[in-house]
TrEMBL record:
Alpha fucosidase A-like C-terminal domain: residues covered: 696-790
Entry keyword Hydrolase: yes
Protein name as it appears in the record: Alpha/beta hydrolase
UniProt GO molecular function: hydrolase activity
InterPro entries for the chain: 6-hairpin_glycosidase_sf (IPR008928), AFCA-like_C (IPR049053), Alpha-L-fucosidase (IPR016518), GH95_cat (IPR054363), GH95_N_dom (IPR027414), Glyco_hydro_b (IPR013780)
Originating organism: Paenibacillus marchantiophytorum
Amino acid sequence: MKLHYLSCAKAWTEALPIGNGRLGAMVFGDPEAEHLQLNEDTLWSGRGPVDANNPNAKRVLSEVRGLIAEGRYAEADKKSKEMMGPYNQSYMPLGDLHLKFRHGGVVQAYERSLDLTDAIARVVYRIGDITYTREMFASYPDQVIVIRIEASAPGALDFTARLDSPHPYRTSFTADHLYLQGICPEHVDPNYYDTDHPVVYGEPETTEAMRFEGRIGVQLEGGAYTIDHDGLHIQSAKAVTLLFSAETSFQGYDKPPAKGSREVAAANEDRLQSAMAKSYEQLRQAHIDDYTALFNRVELRLGASEAAERLPTDRRIAEYGATDAGLVELLFHYGRYLLIASSRAGSQPANLQGIWNKELRPPWSSNWTLNINTEMNYWLAETCHLSECHEPLLGYIQNLSNNGRKTAEVNYGCRGWVAHHNADIWCQSAPVGDYGQGDPVWALWPMSAAWLCQHLWEHYAFTQDERYLREQAYPIMREAVLFCLDWLHPDDNGHLVTSPSTSPEHKFVTADGQMAAVSQATTMDMSLIWDLLTSSIEASAILNVDEPLRAEMAAAREKLKPMGIGEIGHLQEWSKDWDDEDVHHRHVSHLFGIYPGRQLTELATPELFLAARTSLERRGDDGTGWSLAWKICLWARFQDGNRTLALISNLLQLVKENETNYHHGGVYANLFDAHPPFQIDGNFGFTAGVAEMLVQSHAGEISLLPALPDAWPTGFVKGLRARGAMSVSLSWAGGALQEAEIEAQFGGSCRIRTKGISLSVESEGTNVPYEVVMEGIIRFDTEAGKLYTLRSV
């Protein structure tokens, strides 16, 4: 349950992340020069919301559809560039806190760690006979980053703290606080877009971009301190607590940033003073109580780990990888930790890098990439009992849908709402690409609303919160349905299709050997729309609303162009059996119906299920970090535990800081997922995949140990969640289920699937009758709040 190292971080991807959803820091742990790289989740480039919609797209749409219908795909690609809008903005670093110590000497017994049981990063070392200890955490209750520095002898602490930033900034001080104030760029081009002026700042006094402030307060035990323009200077202290608070001028996705710095400073001052009124022990305990209330819900044991105490984490990765069951456990829990640290009520959703970014031009703008990455960030939220951490994304979807209504109307003449593959803090819903500079293979993908709505539905499916479904989820889902109903149109065979249609970031080879992106009715489009229609039909029935629309949705679902099986038995990615641009491509978009969807199952659609498996075989077991995580989830749905573990082995490979081979993912020394470079989605997707190996509930039943590998013969998991608002804990031995506990929050029918064993069911010491639905599946009724124990017999 602890990441630990015997040396300080030399690179950012060796530093350890702390966060409270809003504030984040990367802790380097140098004994003589501590460094915390700082982030705040609303700090973005840009001057506020812009009208990114492109009225020309509506005119061009019919031309593009005509070219596609005639099979002139390369020409359609070129023409579709006229449908693009501007690039969106980028997530920004805030600054850096540097602590320069003056204790000198030779450092001994050094250890740096991040304890997942209390979310505290620690640095411990000895100089002579004096032991120095640092504890650092980001408090959600008090909304500050806390740095506690202690020495084992009185008067041993002498250091200077200073703040700086990569942005234009100035530092100031009062008798009690050191602070910096700065401005963000008014515009930042994506890191992959080569322009003459990629980062543009305004004048500090008149800029319309985001303003920010970071402020430090100090609590002393012994010694004294002074503050001047050079920093905060500590002399001869026994213990020091530093509190860092930050504020930005962000006022909401639909408003420009506030123009003055006074309001920012006042809000930051109030927050810091409130925290300063508490002792370190009070701050620490409030942080631990808040964090553990979420983190302690789930436990996992996969097997013994001889390397856990003996080796630092980076060496465990390099020497053992997935053969160390304890390291797999650690990476599983790390995903839960990172979601708690980057996504809390009131915060922004976790972006491509969670909340941790040091670059002015971060990879892929560190934005919300909606054709897989943002969704993957939240796959673990419900299954791993972190519904509260799902809420920032659910709120963001609401905001995005508000902008998406105008995009649907202006760009396409459609009802409802639409969004595309990239979005930023201003909720840009139009396609990016700088009006034709981008590639339609990623820019022209108007399906993110359908995918995001899956998260709205899943939150209901796991919580059974009907009020949420009625007031928040279904109205947004309904609007996404309206767009899809207008976007769909019949082909020559009477099937409903989408056009232009892309399979995200992957091209096909035309009959004349050209590469093209846009076509008609990609498998992912059809799968996403099927999923949206199915969930919306169920939602309208539960709420007893929209009966005519429900009938229209059901009729449209029946007419969707069916999936195709290719010449070699694989599930086609496109509506025709074209060759792939790259048979080992990192995206496996056409397999959405397997995971995270529910359209394709072994019982309901056996031929398509088998074809999808053949497609996954063709893709291979390599890939970027997040791609490996998606394949882990897919192989879990295919119930192949050993193959799933092989993918985990590929993911648990050590990647060095400067390695950027996009075909080989892995993890960095700090267990961050390597795209490479760093993206956090693979961490979250991995945790979701391990949960999926142990419990599945997408097919109307709770499947226990569906993908248990031979290498994990004995273990247990506690606190996972299943659809229907049910908690699931289970233990196994000899590779077979021994006991499971099901708690039904609201009662109802419960179907259980197991592999090759018979079960007894009891509750409160009384046997519970059950029905054998078919071999391996039983069904019994549950009462709200009761615990049901299932045992192998």
